[in-house]
Amino acid sequence: MFRRKSKKLRENNAELNITAFMNLMVVLVPFLLITAVFSQISILNLNLPAGVSEDIPSEEKPPKALEVVIRKDKFDVMERNSGLLKRIINTENGYDFQGLNTFLQTVKAHPEFNIDTSVTLLMEMDTSYDTLVQTMDAVRLIVREERELDEKGNLIQGELFPNISMGDAPPETDNSQTQLGTEGSL
């Protein structure tokens, strides 16, 4: 009835056949590596303001320093020593990043700022992260109407003020008038 297995069969170890699994791995691993999306992270260095400012001798003219103040309803483009250069009011769609970029291009063309690469962004406490990033892009790069491409098909962009410092916006005063005459003149 029941047959007993012989000792010979019990001692035979069965080997695993992993050839099919290895073939699958040889095909699957390169396929996954080729189709994987590698995330691109860009790093933007920021210059944080120093805790203690140095005293500048009074006989020297203080250096020009461009500031963009982000308020909830406008941008104020200022020169630290002279005052307000231009106030850019929000549009019905929100902040006017294109208007800010266009005005900063005219500022960059001015002889007092054409070699300057620094700008300070001063923002109110409730400024959203998205607004901050879009403002940094508007301040940093020239946005052109016509798209110019290089030989590889990449978009050519110029620099305005790539060295960005950040800080808190001063409280808004009602009598903040430009000290340079009419707004928008340098």
UniProtKB/TrEMBL annotation:
Pfam families: ExbD (PF02472)
TM spans (from-to): 20-38
Keywords associated with the record: Cell membrane, Membrane, Protein transport, Transmembrane, Transmembrane helix, Transport
Main localization (coarse): membrane
Biased composition (Polar residues): 173-186
Entry keyword Transit peptide: no
Lipid bilayer topology: Single-pass membrane protein; Single-pass type II membrane protein
Domain of life: Bacteria
Chain spans, region Disordered: 162-186
InterPro entries: ExbD
Subcellular location field: Cell membrane
Family statement drawn from the similarity comment of this UniProt entry: Belongs to the ExbD/TolR family.
Protein name (database record): Biopolymer transporter ExbD
